[in-house]
């Protein structure tokens, strides 16, 4: 069963000759982990924004099964989290009824220690830790869908490794689906069971991750795989 689907979505921004999205259809199943990959400008973020209702399609539609709740993680924790707030406040803010035990559990889910970190300011922890705090914040309300836009792009190599490990354990231990935009096919291989490949506003490939990587059907996917070998 799909919890989210885009059906023949086209998006034209005013003043642009070419559509940002051109007849895009894909879905995310209940508990399924899906990655969207593609080069810069291929329409990944626009697809997420439309899927989340932050933007409206020019044509086509989006369907979300009830009850779907979403947790969001943005690309850059330095931009998405207030550096003057303590970790505890970041995680619990805006979610009614969240107490210390919930914050503790959410931090633990991303391998962060409440006693060590809860009272630290975001500005005083590493970018990788801050991004895991962002994931904890997204999880504290127990969403059924985790949506992340390039969650490992803005951090160093070690931070990236910890974020990937945290996302993997969250995917394994919690009952949730995920839709993650990624540049890196290697990361997509670790975080998804299905890959959607976008090029110039279109979905050019959509299939099981292992199958797509082993036997790409589209020349563009093969090029991405070749490029990732360097
Ligand atoms: N608000 C906007 N107004 C006009 N054009 C836009 C707007 N947002 C995106 N676009 C255009 O739509 C196309 C798709 O952009 P989008 O940000 O979805 O790509 P992307 O695959 O997420 O790229 P990146 O990896 O660089 O984030 C691009 O050509 C972009 O310039």
Automatic annotation (TrEMBL):
Domain of life: Bacteria
GO biological process, one term: transmembrane transport
Record Pfam families: ABC_tran (PF00005)
Any one Gene Ontology molecular-function term assigned to this protein's record: ATP binding
Domain ABC transporter: 4-225
Keyword Cell membrane: no
Family: Belongs to the ABC transporter superfamily.
Protein name, as recorded: ABC transporter, ATP-binding protein
Source organism of the structure: Alloscardovia macacae
């Amino acid at each position: 069963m799909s919890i989210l689907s885009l059906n023949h979505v086209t998006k034209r921004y005013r003043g642009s000759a070419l559509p940002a999205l051109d007849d895009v259809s894909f879905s995310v199943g209940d508990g399924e982990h899906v990655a969207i990959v593609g080069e810069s400008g291929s329409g990944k973020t626009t697809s997420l924004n439309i899927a989340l209702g932050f933007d409206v399609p020019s044509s086509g539609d989006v369907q979300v099964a009830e009850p779907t709740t979403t947790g969001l993680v943005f690309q850059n924790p330095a931009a998405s989290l207030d550096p003057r707030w303590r970790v505890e406040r970041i995680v619990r803010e805006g979610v009614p009824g969240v107490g210390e035990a919930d914050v503790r559990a959410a931090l633990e889910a991303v391998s962060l220690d409440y006693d060590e970190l809860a009272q630290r300011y975001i500005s005083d922890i590493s970018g990788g830790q801050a991004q895991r705090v962002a994931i904890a914040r997204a999880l504290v309300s127990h969403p059924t869908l985790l949506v992340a836009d390039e969650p490992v792009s803005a951090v160093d190599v070690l931070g990236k490794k910890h974020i990937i490990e945290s996302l993997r354990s969250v995917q394994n231990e919690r009952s949730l689906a995920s839709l993650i935009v990624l540049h890196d096919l290697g990361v997509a291989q670790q975080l998804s069971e299905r890959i959607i490949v976008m090029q110039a506003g279109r979905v050019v490939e959509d299939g099981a991750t292992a199958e797509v990587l082993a036997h790409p059907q589209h020349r563009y996917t093969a090029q991405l795989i070749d490029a990732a070998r360097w």
